[in-house]
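Trying the structure run again after the queue cleared.
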Amino acid sequence: MRFIDFVKEEIDIIKERDPAIKSTMEVFLNPSFKAIIGYRIAHKLFVKKHYFLARWISQRTVRKTGIEIHPGATIGKGLFIDHGNGVIIGETAIIGDNVTLYQGVTLGGTGKEKGKRHPTIGDNVMVSAGAKVLGSFTVGENSKIGAGSVVLSEVPPNSTVVGVPGRVVKRDNVRMPREDLDQVHLPDPIANEISRLAKENEELRNDIKELKARIEKIG
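Done. Tokens:
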């Protein structure tokens, strides 16, 4: 794909997925646009082994946008970074098509691995604000990572993950995160468990109350 095609594609993506954008010219002020275009340039240089120049462009982009994408990362088409300050994408990360990342997301390593150290993110994945995905495993396509989650192991396709450490709480959600960008209304297994325990406790109290009444009646 020609560089101008990347630019046009990125303009269309930001206009599609950022409701705050009212005109095409505003796209050029968007940090996500600057960061991804900077990455495309740096990545081409990195592939050609112009490592210093690639990192120089990458670091200039970090200072301007607050988004750090290592030029060695492999990123498909359609990446959208919303309010991207604090986003970090490691050198060996692989990102599929139509992925959405929110502010504070880290696609990093654990510090214990060599070679492939960073995660592989499948197509149509959404990683919500502040989530950390750490290690050389795969997050399956069409999955959602909840805000603030820390994901340390494989995520099957079509899953919803929440918590620290991240737990799969829903499978086979057919909605595509690219079209469904709701990062708030995700399942909460802890709240559900508390609700279940409260209900059981109330039933036990009623049983004890009824048993006491029978004993008093007999006595």
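The two ends are 88 Å apart (CA to CA). Worth checking whether this holds up in the mutant runs.
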